[in-house]
C-alpha cells in the first residue's frame, strides 16, 4: 500500500468516526423520545426518530464526500488521467466503507446516550425500546449519499476538462 493511500484511509476512518459521534449525539438530542422531547415508549415517535437519524446521516455523507473531494490530492511527478481515476476510485471505496462505519458509530452513540441518560419504564419488555433504531437500512444513507456526491462531483468536473494543447497542435498540423 502506498504511503498516500494509507494516509487517505487513516484520515477517512478518523473523520468518519468523529463525525459519527457528533451525529449520534445530535440524533439523541433532536429525535422524538430523545433528550429534548417526546416519549420513547410511544410507537408513533419511532418513524420520526429514524427519519431524524436518516437526515443527519445524509448531511454527514454529503459533507464528508464534499470535503474529501476538495482535499488536494497527493502530488505526483507525472499526473495522468489514469492516476486521477485510481485516486477517485480509492476515495470512493474509503468513503463507502468509512461512511458505513460512521453510520454505525452514530447509531450506537445515540443508543448509548439514550441508555445512559434515560430510565426505561418498568413495563417495557426491553430497555432499548425507549431509544433505538427501528429501520436498519437507514445506516446505508451515509455511504450512498457520499457515492452520489462523488458521482455528481466527477460528472461536473469532467464536463469542464480543458482541451489539451498537444491535441490542438496535432489538429493544426493536419489542417495546415
TrEMBL record:
Entry superkingdom: Bacteria
Keywords of the record: Membrane, Transmembrane, Transmembrane helix
Transmembrane regions listed in the UniProt entry: 12-31, 51-69, 90-110, 139-161
Name of the protein: Uncharacterized protein
Organism field: Arthrobacter psychrolactophilus
Amino acid at each position: 500500500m502506498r504511503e498516500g493511500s494509507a494516509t487517505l484511509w487513516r484520515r477517512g476512518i478518523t473523520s468518519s468516526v468523529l463525525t459519527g459521534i457528533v451525529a449520534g449525539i445530535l440524533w439523541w438530542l433532536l429525535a422524538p423520545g430523545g433528550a429534548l422531547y417526546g416519549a420513547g415508549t410511544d410507537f408513533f415517535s419511532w418513524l420520526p426518530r429514524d427519519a431524524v437519524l436518516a437526515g443527519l446521516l445524509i448531511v454527514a455523507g454529503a459533507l464528508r464526500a464534499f470535503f474529501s473531494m476538495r482535499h488536494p490530492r497527493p502530488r505526483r511527478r507525472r499526473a495522468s488521467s489514469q492516476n486521477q481515476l485510481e485516486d477517485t476510485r480509492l476515495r470512493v471505496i474509503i468513503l463507502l466503507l468509512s461512511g458505513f462505519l460512521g453510520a454505525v458509530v452514530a447509531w450506537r452513540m445515540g443508543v448509548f446516550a439514550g441508555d445512559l441518560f434515560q430510565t426505561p419504564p418498568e413495563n417495557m419488555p426491553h430497555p432499548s425500546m425507549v431509544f433505538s433504531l427501528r429501520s436498519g437500512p437507514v445506516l446505508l444513507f451515509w455511504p450512498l449519499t457520499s457515492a452520489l456526491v462523488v458521482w455528481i462531483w466527477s460528472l461536473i468536473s469532467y464536463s469542464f476538462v480543458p482541451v489539451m494543447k498537444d491535441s490542438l497542435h496535432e489538429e493544426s498540423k493536419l489542417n495546415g
